[in-house]
Amino acid sequence: MTRIDIVLYEGFDELDAVGPYEVFSNAAKRGADLEPRLVTVDGRDRVTASHGLRVEADGTLPGPDAPDRPDVVVVPGGGWSDRSEAGAWTEAEKGEVPEAVAAHHAVGATVASVCTGGMLLATAGLTDDRPAVTHASALSDLRASGAEVVDARVVDDGDLLSAGGVTSGIDLALHLVEREAGARIAEDVATALEYERRGVVAS
Predict the structure, then answer these.
(1) Which terminus of the chain is less hemmed in, N or C, by CB atoms within 10 Å?
(2) Which residue range forms the structural domain that includes residue 105?
(3) Which residue intervals of the chain are DSSP H helices?
(4) Given this model, what pLDDT does residue 193 score?
């Protein structure tokens, strides 16, 4: 079983998290051995996203030594480029999400980001000297952080994956499904969602 925890925080972009969650859930229904969950780092059970959607989390991100720790951690973006009071910028300043993600990466978890969630990985130091991408509005910030910015919709660097703007999270999730469960299930999910996979996957 591959546990996939999608980390929610106040001000995350709805589609950054819900798009991948729907892809992973559809893949699980089609036989992929995946278990997606929506989690928070601070233990709150309800989060308000950037457009006002209130989302109830499935639980709290386990500690990196917990038996139910995730195999994959997905970090959405939102609220970085406009320095929103709630969002990725604020979470980077607080440090709790980057620290938690870095701790899981240190014990072997694959870490993936959608949109400006990539800046939370950069804050954690995970993209230093590694290929990555983020939303177009934050590419200069990502480059300045020490990442090797790649012109691609999805970047797969093994234990570190990143995707560009908002809808690219669906492509990231389909790529992960293909990586974990094979091309047939990934294509079946894309067909069920009536989603045309697009853009470059760089590795």
Answers:
(1) N
(2) 2-202
(3) 14-29, 88-94, 96-106, 117-123, 139-144, 168-181, 183-192
(4) 97
Model pTM above 0.90: yes
- For the chain, the domain total comes to 1
Q: Which amino acid is at 162?
A: S
CB of 119 closer than 8 Å to CB of 141: yes
> Closest Cα partner for 163 from 174, 153, 175, 150?
153
Q: Which of 163, 156, 137 is nearest to 16 (CA)?
A: 163
Using alpha carbons, select from 83, 114, 106 the residue that is nearest to residue 8.
Answer: 114
Give the separation between CA 156 and CA 160, rounded to whole angstroms: 6
Q: Is 72 helix (H, G, I), strand (E, B) or coil?
A: strand
The pLDDT of residue 198 is: 87
Residue type, 129: D
Q: What pLDDT, on the 0 to 100 scale, is given for residue 202?
A: 85
Characterise 197 by phi-psi region: left (phi > 0), alpha (psi -120 to 50), beta (else).
beta
Low-confidence ranges of the chain (pLDDT < 70): none
Give the CATH number of the domain where residue 146 resides: 3.40.50.880
